Structure formats: structure tokens, C-alpha cells
Amino acid sequence: MKSLSLLMITKNSGELIDSSLKSVLGLIDEIVIVDDYSSDNTRAIAKKYKAMIYKRSSENLGKQRAYGLSKCKGEWILMLDADEIISQELKNEIISVVCRQLSVVGNISGYYIPYQNHFLGKPINYGGENYRILRLFKRASTHITENVVHEHVIVNGKVGFLTHKIFHYSYRNLSQTYKKFADYARREAYRKLSQGERTSFKKLILYPIHMFWARYVKDRGFKDYGLRILLDIGFAYMEFLIYFLMLFDLKKYKKSD
């Protein structure tokens, strides 16, 4: 099997990083973590798995991941967040496709992996929560673009699709979920202002309503269990907060890279 590196960005990720790193044991040849000066036990847990840890602070998640990618030595990269766990089935599938690259069959440079998101401990499947992300790729064929919210992975070559899922525990409780939305809103407001966009009364009022309708009604979020509605209210709250924060000067929130 060709060498495989795990790339992870962390900041106060002690709650789930142990489960995430444990899920890749027997699959990964090296673990590269870029840590934004965590104040909890994140780095202590990572050291148990012999991770190479680079302390670096940046508001730009794309820059953080690109920096981490430059530190990886594996021919293939698996990119996970600390709240993401892979199953044994996905582990076996990754071993299979990376091994297959030893032959001339396929010649694929990256793979999209499906996600199984969870809200308050329960799996959710509708309302925009059923998707795939490019998370397994050849290091030499990949470029990661800068972005303060979600980075973009660009692969030079053909891409394929895996079957088994990454289990994502992004929305663990209401307090953590709404804090995450507030942080995303701040980052996205800064990005929009930096690109010259301006807010308006229409965006403040109609965009949050549309966000809730699109996720909960149009994309059938209501088909998940009853408390799912609190997640889509949270997305509407985030949308409102983006355009509300754009009324203010957000330069003071930007950290140096």
C-alpha cells in the first residue's frame, strides 16, 4: 500500500479527537495536525497517537490546511476534522482504492467521500445534510485554496466516489451548535465585506427566512426527527447574523496569518 497521511486542523478539539484518531489506526502512516493554540487537552491527546503537531494561528482555514498539506509526506492524503470518525468499512474501502493505484487501472487522483451528519446525537439525512466532500487525494496532484470558512480542494486529474461514510458529529448540543454558527457568521461576514459586498434590509429579513424554508421545507428537513427544526432555525440565525455583522467594521476580528 502506498503511504497515506492524515491531515487535521484543530482548536480546542479535545471532545472528539481521541475517537477520530482512533478510527484511523492501522490505516495512516503519519498524522499531521495544525493546531490553533488549543487551551484544552487537544495536543496531549494527539501526542498519544504520535502526531506531528504544528502550532499556527490563522482565521483562514484554507491557509491552515494548505500549510498542513506542505508538512505531509504521504503520497496520499486523508483530510479529516477532529469531529469526524471513519468506520471500519470506510477504512477497508480506502485501503482497497489506494492499493489499486499500484496498477494502471483507474489512474484516479482523488475521491469524494459521503457524510453521515448527526444532530444532538442522532443521524440526519435531509435538508442539505446528505453530501460528499473530496477528502482523499494524491498530495502531488492537489491544491488547497484560501477561504475563511470552508476551503476548496482542487485536484488535477480524475476523481472517483467512495461508498462508505464519514460520521460527522458537528452539531453535538445546542450551545455548541449555535456558537459554531456565530463563528461561521463572523467569518463569512468578513469574507463578504472583503470582497466588496454590502448588506441590506432585504438580506437581513428575507435571506434567513429563505434559508429556513430551503432546508426544512424544500429539502425536506422535516423528515428527520422532530428536534431537527432547531438545526434549521440555527441556520436561519446564522444567515441573519452574517448580514447583521456586515453593518460593522470587522477588521478587528482578523488574525495575522
UniProtKB/TrEMBL annotation:
Keyword Transmembrane helix tagged: yes
TM ranges: 229-248
Pfam families: Glycos_transf_2
Entry keyword set: Membrane, Transmembrane, Transmembrane helix
Record domain Glycosyltransferase 2-like: where: 5-116
Tree of life domain: Bacteria
Record keyword Zinc present: no
Stored InterPro entries: Glyco_trans_2-like, Nucleotide-diphossugar_trans
Name this protein carries in UniProt: Glycosyltransferase 2-like domain-containing protein
